[in-house]
Design goal:
This protein is mostly helical. It is built from nine helices and no strands. The longest helix has 18 residues.
Length: 174
Amino acid sequence: MVGHESAADAGTNDAGQYSPVPARLFWCALDLGTVIEREASHAEARILRAIIHIVQARYAKARRDCQIVRAQSSLIGTGCCAVVDGSAGKAGVAYEKLSAVLSRHPQASSSEKQWVQILAERSLNLISAAEHESALAARFHAAQMRGESVHQQEESRCTLHVEKNPQKALALAQ
């Protein structure tokens, strides 16, 4: 079935090592697979599933989901691929990709640009990442206080990738 793990590789990462999967994470991945079966280009589901693959050290699978997202949104998809690179120990490559995509998308919203900048800084373990994370969180909070939901998609991505909180990210995306 498209989007579902086979029984043979359900417990191994890219290096062929056993990778225990918490039951809740396993069921979440199955639900995402169902969403992707119904709508193959569902970006949020693909990004969430990519993050699950990253946590399981299944970088090739994560990259495939990110590349599908990149076909829809170069900026977000490249950000997703950079997270895979950074998680796989290729921080320099991740930073270069993020810098290049930012320069090609001057029309991107300030929230998207800041999100990509944070990913780049985190991949290089720069101290400034924490400052930018705080500033972005303050912007999202201010928008919520004003009753605005225009940037909710960006907030969801930030919550997922920066705060590493998939449950909150999913709630924001819905």
